[in-house]
Amino acid sequence: MHTEFLMGNEAIALGAVAAGVGLVCGYPGTPSTEVLETVAKHRPEQAWVEWSVNEKTAMEMAAGAACTGVRALVTMKQMGLNVASDPLMCVEYIGVRGGLVVLVADDPGPISSQTEQDTRSFAAFSKVPCFDPSDPQEAYEMIQKAFDLSEKYETPVFLRPTTRVSHAYASIQVRDPEEYRKGPAASFEKDSSRWVIFPRLSNRRHGEIEQRNALLSEVFSAEPANRIDREEGAFASSRRGVITGGISWTYAMEARRFLGPVRLMKVSTPFPFPEKRALEFLSGLEEVLCLEELDPYIERELKYLCGKRGLKIRVLGKETGHVPAAGENTRDSVLSAMAGFLEVSLPGPGELPAPPALPVRPPVLCAGCPHRASFYAVKQAMKGQETLFCGDIGCYTLGNAQPLDMVDTCLCMGAGLGIAQAVSHLEPGRSCFAFVGDSTFFASAVPGVINALYNQASFTLIVLDNSTTAMTGHQPHPGTGRTMMGQSVRPVSIEGVLRGVGLTTVETVDPLNLPLAVETVRRVAVLPGVKAVIFRSPCVALARPKGRVDIDASACVGCRKCIREIGCPALSFDGKAVRVDTAQCTGCGLCRQLCPAGAITGGEIHA
Q1: Is the peptide bond before 363 cis (omega within 30 degrees of 0)?
Q2: In a domain, 360, yes or no
Q3: 214 vs 273: CA distance, rounded Å
Q4: What span, in angstroms and rounded, lies between the C-alpha atoms of 229 and 30?
Q5: Where are the alpha helices (H) located in 266-342, listed in sequence order?
């Protein structure tokens, strides 16, 4: 063993490698992304690592590996679990041979997601066992336990870190490479009675799963990670206790430094719930405060347990209003909830370190981002017309901000195509646009295009192709010609896919050539049926243009059109003339094409 300073996601990845993982696949999604990327850096010689086109495909890959006896890990964020749920529910019924761990990183807040979805509740719904780590060290250890439990009980297993566990850093103890488990070679054994899911198999397996989960509740009750802390002190005889899990346990332990000892329990395996250990914790208590993020999962389990056992214990938490119903927990919110529950005064202002004030930084497209030019070109082309702009998940969601104001709807990945189709059928007089990125195109847009063609919809598809998966850290996708294994492959052509499914109008243009981009959109938008414009220009974080623009202050008339219309963060107004921040400017030249006074020079010319 040795010590390394690691991010939580890096710790999870090294834990998987130490456990002998043979296949890792997933789809990028903050806060989970670094797990797969770290495995790729440290992968064993025989292991396969890939970014799959979406979470459903990744889950099916992992299921296939687990059927061969190889240990498999599939990674995603909580939104991706919705996409992967179809194969997951089925693989839970047929079972696995090799360990299968489904890492789902939840995002309380939400910080970078559409929803605050709780994988603990999904675990109970899908009947899949779940581990809930509270810090990077526990995450490192838990993923190895998860693989062992998966193989022993022939079931997929959830590992559910939240954002503050995934992205926290800590010095942790990790195995030396010579201590790593050696994974078995793949060997698929034909057995249609096991691997082909028929109703007869499902009926039998459902009963077996229920019996197994009852057994796992007993097993988890003996799990040391489900810890009861009974420190003696001010509240030892108060008949009050606090139960928590995940990062909230870490906050509760810190809060106890200021409040004094109180009986605490950490729930590290929320499903199946460790009932015997919880009963041990509840013994002698009259009131319990549940501290958890997202759903009141532990709170409901305790209420159920108390009802089943006839225990007269008052259970407090989200459902009783003692803990906020939504959002992240913090050290301060946990401290406040515990102090109120224990009826003690909070520490004075001088007793707690005051956090520094954070700058206000609203999300905005980067200076020089080609998506800004794409949105502006469509906006200019459709000026004065009744138009619906359906957005999508990614950097281009930021097209909703002023002054662009080009995202009227945003639901989930690929949904813009469905929304545009519905409106085109129901409001035939309105022009509809569906925006999608290049990675999202491959992940979830193709079925929407086919559906639109088949059902005779009429809208314009705009593919914003910046040659990467930018929002989650520039991962490759099928259109880039690179894989996570470092292979150079033939890129999958977006134009080829669109034409292959039946589109007859597919135009590709550089959005930074503004006159051509505007003319192309005007020409294509009036055509009937489904048509597409691909705006292709690389992400500025990967391929920065050469040079910067210059502004002649004496020529600037102060109209601020460049600021009012595109909102580039590299441009500002000093009261007399527009100024350019040379530290941010990439020289894309979009503002130069807007300036009515010709005061902007330099930058890249796109023709």
Answers
A1: no
A2: no
A3: 9
A4: 33
A5: 275-282, 297-309, 331-342
Tokens of residue 118, six digits: 């709780």
Instruction: Tell me the residue length of the chain.
Output: 607
Give the side-chain half-sphere CA count within 13 A for 131. Answer: 28
Tokens standing for residue 169: 């850093």
Residue 544 has pLDDT above 80, yes or no: no
**Phi and psi torsions of 462, nearest 5°:** -110, 115
Asked if 163 and 243 sit in the same domain, the reply is no
> Does 554 fall in a domain?
yes
pLDDT at 291: 97
Q: Return the SS3 of 386.
A: coil
401: nearest Cα among 455, 436, 363, 369: 363
Closest CA to 242 of 302, 212, 287, 184: 287
Same domain, 561 and 517: no
Percentage of the residues of the chain whose pLDDT score is greater than 70: 97
Q: How far apart are CA 318 and CA 306, in angstroms?
A: 17
User: How crowded is the C-beta side of 262, counted as CA atoms within 13 Å?
Assistant: 30
- For residues 331 and 425, membership in a common domain is answered with no
Residue type at position 335? L
Q: Reduced to 3 states, what is the DSSP secondary structure of residue 114? A: coil
- In the chain, % helix, strand, coil (3-state, to 5) comes to 40, 15, 45
Residues 244, 203 share a domain: no
Contact 155, 95 (CB under 8 A): yes
* pTM listed for this prediction: 0.88
| Residue 50 vs residues 23, 46, 85, 267, 488: alpha-carbon distances, Å | 8, 13, 19, 33, 13
Beta-carbon count within 10 A of 172 CB: 23
- CA dist., res. 382 & res. 379, Å (int): 5
Res. 232 pLDDT band, cuts 50 70 90 = low
If you average pLDDT over every residue of the chain, what do you get?
92
Residue 188 has pLDDT above 90, yes or no: no
Q: Are 464 and 521 in contact (CB under 8 A)?
A: no
Report phi then psi at 215, rounded to 5: -65, -40
CA–CA distance from 311 to each of 40, 181, 283, 286, 590 (Å)?
50, 45, 9, 9, 69
Give the Cα separation of 490 and 480 in Å (integer).
Answer: 8
Q: Tell me the C-alpha to C-alpha distance, in Å, between residue 142 and each of 168, 455, 535.
A: 16, 48, 44
- For residue 405, give Cα distances in angstroms to 113, 293, 364: 20, 33, 12
